[in-house]
């Protein structure tokens, strides 16, 4: 007998999210370059704060996240009353869909956009609309052409994942201005801190009523295991999100670690400059091996191979050398491998392995 128990419409269209692998059968000394994690790990101050939080585990955490929001406000020079903290920026993206899109509404993401935009849209019962990109770059005109009176949200990551490409503030502003009045532009800034001089869309947010940014502690802050992200936007939008988030969504160790991390600006700068240095080194070295990539602004490189077969063969050889990268086939890049920028030894190790694959190294 067919079950009468059915989930809400849209939910069974969701394909399970696949994260970056972290183990290889039979290989020790695995080098994981598949999830854009910080090779230096979190700030020592964040680890200390986490350890100290152990003594208060019987206490409920704060519901208003005031300590972390204040620290974010001070460091990023923004209004802490318009910051919302979430279990990873994933939760903020999810709350945006839950609060602003439902059955009959459309949510735009782009051709190579992050998988979670579609998942959160379907989870809310809304309809995902995929818009083409232009040479691996988000296409503002294509998004504006697809937007209509049913469009409630537009998600773009800037820098984008898995391409690493970047849209300037002029283009983003044109997008925000051109959208229908009922539509919110969500700027996913998971990698914004890696771009020198980029304000992650802050000035645009302050001047408009339809732009929200999301940020994370999982990437440059090296706290992916803690699950901390945040959002920033107009007060009325943040108020809506606060009504539907769990009152105790953040654990106290996570709040403590993130607050210490955001205040350690010296460590942050060191992570940013190390990444920039090895990112440039890695992309140049790969190009010399005949593996091109777009100029990346993030902490990963989308390395292009001649064909899917070549990318797969390279991936196999990397695995046998104990190196895990991402094959972003489900993002429309069957002929590519996405490689996280590691530390110096990681970068040298993967360049050596790809050189061997290309027959250019012993
Ligand atoms: C990694 C990543 C995130 C961050 O997710 P968290 O839930 O904060 O760990 C968000 N968006 C994109 C595009 C990412 O690559």
Tags for this entry?
Aspartate Aminotransferase, domain 1, 12 helices, two-stranded parallel sheet, binds pyridoxal-5'-phosphate, alpha/beta, 362 residues, 7-stranded mixed beta sheet, 2 domains, 38% helix, Aspartate Aminotransferase, domain 2
Write up this protein.
The chain is α/β, with parallel strands linked by helices. It has 2 domains: 18-41 and 266-361, Alpha-Beta Complex (Aspartate Aminotransferase, domain 1), CATH 3.90.1150; 44-263, Type I PLP-dependent aspartate aminotransferase-like (Major domain) (Aspartate Aminotransferase, domain 2, 3-Layer(aba) Sandwich), CATH 3.40.640.10. It is built from 12 helices and 11 strands. The strands form 3 sheets. It has a 7-stranded mixed β-sheet with strand order 2-8-7-6-5-3-4, with helices on both faces. Strands 1-10 form a two-stranded parallel ribbon. α6 links the parallel β5 and β6 (184-188). α1 runs antiparallel to α9 and α3 (88-100) packs across α4. The radius of gyration is 21 Å and the shape is globular.
Largest sheet: 7 strands, mixed
State Rg: 21 Å
Low-confidence stretches: none
CATH class of the largest domain: Alpha Beta
CATH topology of the largest domain: Aspartate Aminotransferase, domain 2
Q: What share of residues are in beta strands?
A: 5-15%
Give the terminus-to-terminus CA distance: 63 Å
Written as H for each helix and E for each strand, in order along the chain, the element string is: EHHEHEHEHEHEHEEHHHEHEEH
The CATH homologous superfamily of the largest domain: Type I PLP-dependent aspartate aminotransferase-like (Major domain)
Overall spatial form = globular
What is the topology, as strand order, of the major beta sheet? 2-8-7-6-5-3-4
Approximate helicity band: 25-40%
> Structural class of the secondary elements?
alpha/beta
Overall pLDDT score = 96
Q: What's the domain count?
A: 2
Number of strands: 11
CATH architectural grouping of the largest domain: 3-Layer(aba) Sandwich
Which small compounds were modeled alongside the protein? pyridoxal-5'-phosphate
